[in-house]
Amino acid sequence: MENKIKIDIVSDVVCPWCAIGYKRLEQAINELGIQDKVEIEWQPFELNPQMPNEGQNVQEHIAEKYGATESQQQQSQQHMTEVGKELGFTFDYFNDMKMVNTFESHILLEYAHKFDKQTELKLALMTAFFSQRKDVSDRDVLKNILQEVGLDPDKGIALLDNTASQDEVRNKQNYWKSLGVSSVPTIVFNRKSAVTGAQPIDIFKQVLTELNEAQ
């Protein structure tokens, strides 16, 4: 069996640059025509592990965490919206948008991995949060998204209260942190090299071409 390029994407579902980074990576893979030569696995990272269940207004949260003014946030959101549009991803920012806790999303992504539906679920979760104004910490929302991507919603939701499933996500988060991952997206190739941030498509193409030739 031909060796594939293993790509681990350490990210969170409420991270806009993770959505942009993946869409750029996807475009690079498609332009190179190497869809069958890569294997992608999503790895958990919580931007806000202490986020309470009720969430927090996005503008308040960004101001508190990064010190960004309202005007800076609007510029940033406008920029991300434009970049997303170029890549076929919709960012729909609104005044009452809430940053939410994503721990349970990561449990479901581990579940999806067992059925080769991880990327499908990840995109559905990011789309729900950024494009459809949905609360991805709400179990009813999560249940519907599982159903949309063809996963058993009851089995998936049952894992959310399962200690072993919770520990699996925490252990994976700790593993990547122990390797020095402190910002997302961090995209790791063959567990040997990594790039951080939403790199341009050409950078991804260069890295993938070199790795493909070396396989």
Walkthrough of the structure:
It is a single chain. The protein is α+β, with helices and mostly antiparallel strands and 215 residues long. The chain has a domain at 5-46 and 102-207: Glutaredoxin, CATH 3.40.30. The chain is built from 9 helices and 6 strands, in the order βαββααβαααααββα. The protein has helices at 16-32, 58-66, 70-87, 103-113, 118-130, 139-148, 153-158, 163-178, 201-214; strands at residues 5-11, 38-44, 56-57, 98-99, 186-189, 193-196. The chain has a 4-stranded mixed β-sheet, sandwiched between helices. A two-stranded antiparallel sheet has the order 3-4. A hairpin with a 3-residue loop joins strand 5 and strand 6 (193-196). The longest helix has 18 residues, at 70-87.
Radius of gyration: 17 Å
CATH architecture of the domain at 5-46 and 102-207: 3-Layer(aba) Sandwich
Approximately how much helix is present in the residues? Answer: 40-55%
Mean pLDDT: 96
Sheet/helix structural class: alpha+beta
- Write down the CATH topology of the domain at 5-46 and 102-207: Glutaredoxin
Along the chain, the helix and strand elements come as EHEEHHEHHHHHEEH
Number of strands: 6
Overall form: globular
Number of helices: 9
What low-confidence regions span 5 or more consecutive residues with pLDDT below 50?
none
Tell me the strand percentage band: 5-15%
CATH homologous superfamily identity of the domain at 5-46 and 102-207 = Glutaredoxin
**Alpha-carbon distance between the two ends:** 12 Å
CATH class of the domain at 5-46 and 102-207: Alpha Beta
Major sheet summary line: 4 strands, mixed
What is the spatial order of strands in the main beta sheet? Answer: 2-1-5-6
